[in-house]
Write a structure and sequence with these properties.
The protein is about 5% helix and about 50% strand. It is built from one helix and 24 strands. The protein has a four-stranded antiparallel β-sheet with strand order 3-2-1-24, with no helix packed on it. The protein has a four-stranded antiparallel β-sheet with strand order 4-5-6-7, with no helix packed on it. A four-stranded antiparallel β-sheet has the order 8-9-10-11, with no helix packed on it. It is globular, with a radius of gyration of 19 Å. The model has no long low-confidence stretch (mean pLDDT about 95). Bound molecules: calcium ion (4 copies).
Length: about 280
């Protein structure tokens, strides 16, 4: 009787954890054999694939909202440009062609455009590339080294600006531009949760790089993951239940999935390569 109950309880535990498995897919950068590649994996840890597998430097991938395409940075044609890949076919289109560096790409929510950072000899600014017309326009170009934009729901865009020379998290929505952080040191890599209510960001306010979370009005700043090694950008899941983040606790960068209470759910990568810059979509 006891044995049977133990079996039933064990089966119930398996069913509960199975139903709580993260869904969708995650793209990330993996430095394999000294060369950066764009890789994809299902959010439950299955289906790893190296999407680029070439001699160029391929990094900073971001998935389209429907998960069918990935935009990324590559120097395959000489300097850093943005590229768009259809994951199913593997077809790649070059989106930019300039002597400057295009970096930090993310799709807009309606997938009609890509928001990115243009880095020139004069500094960095945030641009929006219209995928229909092919034209790029400056979005945030105020001379404050604007960069690392991320679009959340409802038209909210979080980005980084060097306010008075110090990196802070900014948020732009229909009511205007707001400065969310005001701390000495680096505050970078903002991402917005699926409900639009919270913002993850990476900060050095405690010395090393940690992942913090705050409300979208800038209140409630708190550590989400702060080990003694470096934490990277948090990639919120589209269902709002999880976040993927890389850290170095094994000696190389690996990507882990946490629930929103900060409990580790699973380890997505486990190898000697550096795996980082996760981005999560359907
Ligand atoms: Ca490569
Ligand atoms: Ca370029
Ligand atoms: Ca700061
Ligand atoms: Ca840390």
């Amino acid at each position: 009787m006891l044995n049977r109950m133990a079996v039933v309880l064990a089966l119930m535990a398996i069913a509960a954890s199975a139903s709580a498995q993260p869904t969708g897919k995650i793209v990330f950068t993996s430095v394999r054999n000294g060369n950066a590649e764009v890789c994809v994996i299902n959010a439950n840890g299955t289906g790893f694939e190296n999407l680029t597998d070439d001699d160029a430097y391929d990094d900073q991938p971001a998935l389209s909202p429907d998960g069918t395409e990935v935009v990324f940075v590559s120097n395959r044609d000489g300097n850093r440009e943005l590229y768009l890949m259809n994951i199913a076919s593997g077809d790649v289109v070059r989106l930019t062609n300039t002597d400057d560096s295009e970096i930090d790409p993310v799709f807009t929510n309606d997938a009609s455009g890509v928001i990115y950072t243009l880095e020139t000899g004069e500094g960095r600014d945030v641009y929006r590339l219209d995928l229909v017309s092919g034209e790029s326009k400056a979005v945030y170009a105020g001379g404050e080294d604007e960069r690392m934009a991320y679009q959340g729901p409802g038209g909210k865009i979080a980005y980084v600006a060097a306010v008075n020379g110090d990196d802070e998290i900014m948020l732009k929505d229909s009511s205007g531009r707001k400065q969310l952080t005001d701390s000495p040191g680096i505050d970078i890599m903002p991402t917005i949760t699926a409900d639009g209510k919270q913002v993850f960001f990476v900060t050095t306010r405690e010395g090393d790089y940690d992942l913090y979370l705050m409300y979208a009005d800038g209140t409630g700043e708190r550590p989400f993951l702060n080990t003694e090694t470096s934490e990277g950008r948090g990639a919120p899941s589209p269902d709002g239940g999880y976040v993927a983040v890389a850290n170095e606790e094994t000696g190389s960068l690996d990507i882990y999935v946490y629930d929103m209470d900060g409990n580790r759910v699973l380890q997505l990568t486990d190898d000697a390569y550096d795996n980082y810059e996760p981005h999560w979509s359907k």
